[in-house]
Structures are given as structure tokens and as C-alpha cells.
Amino acid sequence: MATSPISVQLYTVREALAHDVPGTLRRLADLGLTQVEPFDLTARAAALAPALAEAGLSAPTAHARVVGEDLDAVFAAATALGTGTVIDPRVATDRWHTAGSIASIADDLNAAAAVAARHGVRVGYHNHAQEVEVVLDGRTALEVLADHLDEAVVLEVDAYWAAVGGQDPVALLRRLGTRVVALHLKDGPGTPEVLDQVALGSGGQPLREVVEAAPHALRVVELDDCRGDRFAAVADSLTWLRAQGLA
């Protein structure tokens, strides 16, 4: 199986990042990481750019809202950071309940992708549970969205939240196919309680099968929260991925 570089979503270490950007990035680089995934890109790009360079890290993907935002500002921030894929992390829950409203989300993402292309950037979308809890004619809302997306728009599938939403994440990934360019990897019991999330390999998620279902996707370690130290959980997650030959 082909392996892929590993990244970490900086939201995992958000408190440390708020206190000390350079120091936090150095700690992640010291774990052997070469890539990270920023969040709230537009507000954070100026502080992150020099600190990433100092730590020897890149940010190929980043989270930033694109639906309803000042797109030129978003994609200019991405360009300044060297980020090639800007991923919208969430569209409001009330827009996922009908085929028509889902198609309108796709219209928004497609329009954003056209602007992104002028900056040399592409657009993606990241799921939570809401996009898979809604099922229309036997297909999840996320799959319905994919039907309406331009080829230029990609997906980052959060396999854990797919499980929370009642879907088999492995089967979902297989159905979505090559549009999936990144994975959020989490472990735990697959419940909405984020404090129950744990280091990869310590919970009940089928992580190897998830990775094998999208072998060329960027693997992004993330904990929304946990009951222990999140830096330690990231370190343990990387150790597990390497021991399994998945990094």
C-alpha cells in the first residue's frame, strides 16, 4: 500500500498555539512532522508564515470558511502561506436537509473554486456528522454534494465524524473515491463526546481500513479534545502510525 505524508490539524493544540506560535510549531516538528494543517487561516496566516519557515514545516492544506466569505482575502492568505488546498470546515446544519439546498452548497463551493483558481489554489470541503446523518434516496448528503461539485473541488473526509453520524467510514470512502484528497484521523468510541477521543490505535476505529480505502490521501491527525495531554496524544498517534507502516 502506498504511504502518504502525515500532517496534524493545529486545532488539536490550539491553546498552546494561542500562547506561543513558534514554540508550538517547533514542538510538532520535533515529533518528526513536516506538515501541519492550520485553521482559521485568514486570521492566522501572518503569524504562521515565519514560524512555519523557522520550524521547517509546510501547510499544504488549511481550514478556512469560503462560503459567504471575502474569497480574495482567504486565497491571498493561502498563497502567502504556500497552502494549495483551502478546506471549508463546515456549512450550517440547516442547509443539508434537502437535495435543493445541498445543490446550493455545491454552487457556493464551485463559485469559490473559480476564484481560488485565479490564486493558484483549490477548494475542498470537510465533513462533520451532519453531512452523513442526512440520507436522501439511500445516499448521504455528503455524496449528494459530491454529485454536484465541479471536478476542481475536493473532499477531506473526517472518518471519525462519519462514524459518529452513523456511517461505515470505510464504505463511505470507497464510494467517494479519488475526490478524497485528505483524511482526518481520530480514534475513540465514535460518540459525539469529544473528550472521549484518544490517541490513534487506542480506540475502536478501523483506522488501517480507513487509510487503505484512501491510500493516497494526506493523513491528518486530529483530536477535537481528549481527557489527557493532546501533545502526548499526537506523539502517541504518530508512533502508532509508524509502527503500523502507515506513515
From TrEMBL:
| Source species, domain of life | Bacteria
Residues in domain Xylose isomerase-like TIM barrel?
28-214
Q: Which GO terms describe its molecular function?
A: isomerase activity
A Pfam family that this protein carries is AP_endonuc_2
Give the matching InterPro entries: IolE/XylAMocC-like (IPR050312), Xyl_isomerase-like_sf (IPR036237), Xyl_isomerase-like_TIM-brl (IPR013022)
Keyword terms, alphabetized: Isomerase
Query: Does the keyword field hold Repeat?
Result: no
> Which regions span the lipid bilayer?
none
PANTHER family named in the record:
HYDROXYPYRUVATE ISOMERASE, INOSOSE DEHYDRATASE
Know the name of this protein? Xylose isomerase domain protein TIM barrel
